Amino acid sequence: MKPAKLAAVLGEEAIGREARSVLEDHSTVRLWLRLLSCSTQIEQEIRTRLRQRFATTLPRFDYLAQLERHPEGLRMKQLGSYLMVSGGNVTGLTDQLEAEGFVQRLPDPEDRRSWILKLTAQGRSHFLAMAAEHEAWLIELLGGFEGANRLYELLGQLRVHLAQPENKA
Fold this sequence. Notes:
Blueprint: H1 3-10, H2 12-15, H3 27-54, H4 58-69, E1 74-75, H5 76-83, H6 87-99, E2 103-108, E3 111-119, H7 121-142, H8 148-163
Antiparallel strand pairs: 1-3, 2-3
Helix pairs in contact: 3-7, 4-7, 5-6
């Protein structure tokens, strides 16, 4: 669908970054803007629902998700790496989530200067409730899209293409 047609369907406010695209742009520029717009649109909806339903943010959800995937716990530096954020961001979120009883800091037995972060039982329960609704929201948002399986395959091919050495700086 062309950007002008999308703007008519979505509205000028909702078209977002893709509105920058014109037919004279290289197809790869248009593809990039469309991927970014779709990702942003889905992310904004998830952010809104997390805020409304759980009074939380997407970074807090992602933080808890990483700890849930690593029941043995993670060092703060590892968690920051997985979340792709600075140590200061991890510390701020850790302080909040620890105060709420969702996370515990344990001394790292291998490095006295480090902490191991783990979910508490309350934190795990809270996260699993959010994760179940999060999955339902994604099913609701993407489930009716008939091209989902084909798009998934194509995006996998794109990831492999992007990982090729000749496509890296």
